[in-house]
Amino acid sequence: MKEKLILRPPEATDGMALFDLVARCSPLDTNSSYCNLLQVSHFSDTAVVANRASQLVGSVTGYRLPNSTSPTWFVWQVAVDDSARGLGLAKQMLLDVLARPHMADIEYIETTITRDNEASWALFRSLARQLQASLSESVMFEQQAHFQGRHATEYLVRIGPLTL
Ligand SMILES: CC(C)(COP(=O)(O)OP(=O)(O)OC[C@H]1O[C@@H](n2cnc3c(N)ncnc32)[C@H](O)[C@@H]1OP(=O)(O)O)[C@@H](O)C(=O)NCCC(=O)NCCS
């Protein structure tokens, strides 16, 4: 029998399971465990985790942009365990956070993606289509100027304005 996926806002005790999930979801960069703990505590309102049985198999972390004139949800990382991919879980998690009452004022979704991450581009293009919103892209953190050659350029993806 297929186990059910349960989506919920994360709690501080999810921090280490989140660390482990991100670590097995290449090409995501791992964060410090302390950073993961902040994501699931201070930023729980703008994050979601998905559990199957007792295992954490999906997560979206993010926060409201602090200095934006338009209310914007910045999506930090989306991770889906290999065993749960291709089921629509990543998109379902993004929509779950957006559907929360306290997110009703959000006008834009932002994230950054490296050029070669086809799954991530497909996910956010699919989200934009579903929300019937425009998607624009620009360079946010450049390989040389910001990463000193140690990381590929991160492109800022902006979806919105949201009207649905
Ligand atoms: C990217 C990732 C989160 C997608 O998770 P998922 O649950 O399998 O994605 P979904 O099933 O919700 O798919 C959403 C859309 O993206 C498309 N997609 C997902 N993975 C894809 C892939 N590898 N190649 C092409 N398209 C892909 C789906 O076909 C779907 O498109 P549709 O709605 O037009 O049919 C997952 O592959 C992952 O964790 N990858 C490693 C971490 C990572 O790169 N995260 C990037 C986000 S920061």
Briefly, what is this?
The protein has 164 residues and is an alpha+beta fold.
Written account of the structure:
By secondary structure, this protein is of the alpha+beta class. It has one domain: Aminopeptidase. The protein is 25% helix and 29% strand. It has 4 helices and 7 strands, in the order βααβββαβαββ. It has helices at 15-23, 33-41, 89-98, 118-130; strands at 5-8, 48-52, 55-64, 72-80, 108-114, 135-141, 154-159. It has a 7-stranded mixed beta sheet. The longest helix is centred in the last third of the chain and has 13 residues, at 118-130. The radius of gyration is 15 Å and the shape is globular. The chain starts with a strand and ends in a 5-residue tail after the last strand. The model has no long low-confidence stretch (mean pLDDT 96). It binds coenzyme A. Coenzyme A is lined by residues 25, 27-28, 77-80, 85-91, 117-120, 122-123, 126. Coenzyme A (COA) binds at residues 25, 27-28, 77-80, 85-91, 117-120, 122-123, 126.
